[in-house]
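User: Predict the structure for this protein chain, please.
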Amino acid sequence: MREIIQKNKSCETKYPILLVHGVFFRDSTRINYWGRIPKELEKNGAKIYYGNHQSADSVKKSGEEIAERIREITALTGAKKLNLIAHSKGGLDCRSAIARCEIASLVASLTTINTPHRGCAFADYLLKNVPEKIKNKIADTYNYTLKKLGDPNPNFLAAVQDLTEENCITFNNDISETSHTENIFCQSVGSKLIKATGGNFPLNLTYHLTKIFDGDNDGLVGENSFPFGEKYLFLLPLGKRGISHGDMVDMSRRNIDGFDVRKFYVELVSDLKARGF
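Assistant: Here is the predicted structure, written as structure tokens:
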């Protein structure tokens, strides 16, 4: 068990933090999805837990997994509520859990990081234009591989389909953007990638396609899709590179000019503490 030497208690929130990963990744003890962020938060007093849900499934199914995890953690720790911090599709999964799984009373706050709340228009384009045979081949290969890595029943196509603009409109209409979170503090964060070369593969490729359909983006999600909740922060870096979808979870484990991702999360969680969460 790794030893955490605390710097201070600026991130010692009233309720534990649950980090919820995005699509096509898993929580792993070897390679942390959130990079250097969790360790930095723990050094500053945070209690961190992980979603531990499958890498790919529909928003509804992933939401059910998240809801069960929330019940498990609150029962284990005795905490009355949790603070959810969710990246990418994880934000939609959390909203679904809150709206559909009767766990709203167990959630103090929801912070979504670069979540496509209104979908990704380029995903609609790809699903409509990539031949069915190729889509199924990619899906079958992915699902087979992730089963070998530990996912009980991954569903590549269900995950991708729920990220389309069309399905996100349906999702928002079905659950309403606010009714399911009336007593939960909700906020959202987005970022802008300025140069395609600033994003690691495949974001350096998807950036151009996303820009055609969604305008300014983080390499994957358009700016207009980010806002959710009563507080919204759009990050514009000082440097010429920008901040990608992956940078927001420290995927490359490197520092970026004008943006310290560890400092950002410490300030974010410190603010949750100041709000009484």
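Residues 17-118+175-274 form a domain with the Rossmann fold fold (CATH 3.40.50.1820).
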